[in-house]
């Protein structure tokens, strides 16, 4: 077990004492607007717009996200909601509800007010949903921070959104204090610490705050006269793409609640009832990522399932947790799928109770998914996706490149597909409209034609904070969000994402998708992993270059190039060469950081 993990473990175990601390919904049945004309003047064909194969859902109005999350908890208030996989510390659904309301009351009593931003710099832990929903009960706006970021990166984010309060973890208190010290705009920022054996000067105690009596405190409700659920920002997730400082993606309560509501018909999980077996989900995907935030903090409570949290990936702890808890649902990304496939200690017995495996953030490739299904060895519902609208929110790591997708879900494979649609992100969710447009002309394309995927629906972000130009460049005047993803759909309305618009390699004017080459390379028996970028070429424009991680040390460059030549057309051959590396650089979500590789190559080529 890593030393960092031991540090996490010791601190998490010290939090066990925390567990001892003591509106009407209105449904609006409507669907996205279906205006046929395009104000941009580009030819648009509404007959080629793609809707869900499922009926539209009645959209929900009149409740905020916290109200929606806890709507049904009376059915399972005494079962465990969240449990720490390291320390065993846990909270029931009733404790989660009460403590979150108490925390919300304490925030208001501290002087914070509606619309103030609270930054969460904490790992995956059972207190995360308490702090999250408490923020919403107080009418505040949470923003989520990757704890591995530098002080400068965090300072840029917190300064941009005018953060008034930080919730953190003892291990990250020095980082939070450093951020405040280098950011004059944060001079009055409050710091709240979850856990710790001793009080920290200048910081508030989360454990004391969740003891606050919330009765008599005017906590936020969706029906409040000063609330606009469709316009007021409910969460800020920071993103970039490929240039500039990260931008704050503004999500509303309307978008968060309705995206969960859109997704519920596609989930193959039994709702908990007295006497039934409680579902169990692995909580390893980062909660600051929309997939972990939404799937594990917003959707899971709708079924009364238990989430077992891990603060980071440690191979030994990951294996032990899988064996101990026998999860019914597991959320993975490509690196974790590869680990499961290749580790001898993870056999069929570990997954005997697993009914659902969800994979997101980056395509895993058909070959890898089939190997996973073969290893599990029984009927399991594998859903690649759910597809999170990409350009709506991406996170630029400090060295450049893409990291976790941070925006709501627009597509998901249906459980009825029964693993026959491996590689697809699925059809659109109910109450969602999608089209594919030509990247040059903007013309709407039909089935099997590749272009940029554009989305309309209630789940869309409202825009970028303090950045109207970036908003206009992403959401057009007709309300279509341009994802920046290249893909196509079949006659059955199942969508396939080929690559990112900005990462396509242009070879003699022909487009080459790095992901196609990467998937092909991973099929080689001597290749463990691979990444492909385009490098400049005077005549061709660009050439594909592969970075390969060996599974077998005997692998040669010639073997790699020949393998690709035998399978793909000439403009996709690795004319830019092959380089062997120890590991492919990836973000926590599993997305390949191709920009890192390209910048390093260009620096070395000077």
The structural domain count equals: 2
Q: What portion of residues belong to β-strands? A: 15-25%
Question: Judging by the overall fold, what is the CATH architecture of the largest domain?
Answer: 3-Layer(aba) Sandwich
Here the CATH topology of the largest domain equals Rossmann fold
Q: Give the strand line-up of the largest sheet.
A: 2-22-23-25-26
Low-confidence stretches: 22-37, 390-406
Structural class: alpha/beta
First CA to last CA: what distance?
Answer: 41 Å
Structure annotation, total helices = 16
Oligomer state of the chains in this structure: single chain
Helix content: 25-40%
CATH superfamily of the largest domain: ANL, N-terminal domain
Domain AMP-dependent synthetase/ligase: 72-465
Protein name: Putative 4-coumarate--CoA ligase 3
GO molecular function, one term: long-chain fatty acid-CoA ligase activity
Domain AMP-binding enzyme C-terminal: 516-591
Describe the secondary structure blueprint for this structure:
Elements: H1 3-13, E1 26-28, E2 50-51, E3 59-61, H2 65-69, E4 80-84, E5 90-92, H3 93-109, E6 117-121, H4 128-137, E7 141-144, H5 151-160, E8 163-168, H6 173-181, E9 190-193, E10 204-205, H7 206-209, E11 233-239, E12 247-252, H8 253-263, E13 280-283, H9 290-299, E14 306-309, H10 315-325, E15 329-332, H11 334-342, E16 356-359, H12 366-376, E17 381-384, E18 387-388, E19 394-396, E20 402-405, E21 409-411, E22 433-437, E23 451-456, E24 463-464, H13 468-474, E25 481-489, E26 495-500, E27 505-507, E28 510-512, H14 514-522, E29 527-537, E30 541-550, H15 557-565, E31 578-580, H16 594-604
Parallel strand pairs: 4-14, 6-7, 6-8, 8-9, 9-10, 13-14, 15-16, 16-17, 30-31
Antiparallel strand pairs: 1-3, 2-22, 4-5, 11-12, 12-24, 18-21, 19-20, 22-23, 23-25, 25-26, 27-28, 29-30
Helix pairs in contact: 3-4, 5-6, 11-12
């Amino acid at each position: 077990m890593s030393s960092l993990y031991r540090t996490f473990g010791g601190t998490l175990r010290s939090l066990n004492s925390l567990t001892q601390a003591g509106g009407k919904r209105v449904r609006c049945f409507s669907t996205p607007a279906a205006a046929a004309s395009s104000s941009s003047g580009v030819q648009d064909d509404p007959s080629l717009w793609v809707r869900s194969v499922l009926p539209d859902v009645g959209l929900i109005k009149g409740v905020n996200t916290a109200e929606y999350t806890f709507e049904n908890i009376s059915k399972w208030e005494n079962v465990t909601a969240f449990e720490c996989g390291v320390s065993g510390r846990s909270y029931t659904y009733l404790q989660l509800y009460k403590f979150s309301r108490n925390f919300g009351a304490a925030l208001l009593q501290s002087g914070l007010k509606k619309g103030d931003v609270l930054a969460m710099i904490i790992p995956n832990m059972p207190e995360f949903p308490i702090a999250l929903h408490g923020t919403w009960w107080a009418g505040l706006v949470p923003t989520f921070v990757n704890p591995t970021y530098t002080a400068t990166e965090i300072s840029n984010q917190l300064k941009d959104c005018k953060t008034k309060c930080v919730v953190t973890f003892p291990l990250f208190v020095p980082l939070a204090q450093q951020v405040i010290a280098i950011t004059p705009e944060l001079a009055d920022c409050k710091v709240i610490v979850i856990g710790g054996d001793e009080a920290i000067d200048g910081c508030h105690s989360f454990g004391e705050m969740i003891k606050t009596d919330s009765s008599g405190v005017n906590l936020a409700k969706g029906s409040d006269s000063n609330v606009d659920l469709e316009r007021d920002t409910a969460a800020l997730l920071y993103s970039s793409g490929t240039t500039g400082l990260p931008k704050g993606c503004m999500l509303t309560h309307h978008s968060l609640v309705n995206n969960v509501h859109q997704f519920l018909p596609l989930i193959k999980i039994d709702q908990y009832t007295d006497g039934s077996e409680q579902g169990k989900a692995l909580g390893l995907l980062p909660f600051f990522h929309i997939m972990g935030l939404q799937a594990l903090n917003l959707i899971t409570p709708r079924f009364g399932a238990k989430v077992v949290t891990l603060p980071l990936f440690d191979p030994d702890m990951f294996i032990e947790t899988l064996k101990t808890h026998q999860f019914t649902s597991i959320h993975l990304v490509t690196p974790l799928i590869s680990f499961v496939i290749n580790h001898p200690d993870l056999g069929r017995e570990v997954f005997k109770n697993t009914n659902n495996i969800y994979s997101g953030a980056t395509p895993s490739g058909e070959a890898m998914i089939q190997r996973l299904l073969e290893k599990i060895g029984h009927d399991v519902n594998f859903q690649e996706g759910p597809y999170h609208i990409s350009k709506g929110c991406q996170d630029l790591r400090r060295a450049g490149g893409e990291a976790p997708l941070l925006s709501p879900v627009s597509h998901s494979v249906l459980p009825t597909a029964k693993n026959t649609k491996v590689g697809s992100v699925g059809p659109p969710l109910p109450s969602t409209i999608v089209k594919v447009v030509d990247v040059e002309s903007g013309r709407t394309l039909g089935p099997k034609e590749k272009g940029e995927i554009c989305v309309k629906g209630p789940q869309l972000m409202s825009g970028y904070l303090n950045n109207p130009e970036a908003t206009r460049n992403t959401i057009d005047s007709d309300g279509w969000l341009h994802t920046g993803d290249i893909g196509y759909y079949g006659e059955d309305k199942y969508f396939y994402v080929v690559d990112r618009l900005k990462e396509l390699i242009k070879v003699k004017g022909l487009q080459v998708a790095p992901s196609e080459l990467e998937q092909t390379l991973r099929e080689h028996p001597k290749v463990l992993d691979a990444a492909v970028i385009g490098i400049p070429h005077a005549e061709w424009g660009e050439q594909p270059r592969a970075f390969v991680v060996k599974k077998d040390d005997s692998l040669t460059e010639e073997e790699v190039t020949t393998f690709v030549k035998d399978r793909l057309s000439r403009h996709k051959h690795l004319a830019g060469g092959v380089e062997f590396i120890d590991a492919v650089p990836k973000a926590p979500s599993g997305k390949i950081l191709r920009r890192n590789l390209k910048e390093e190559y260009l620096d070395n080529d000077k």
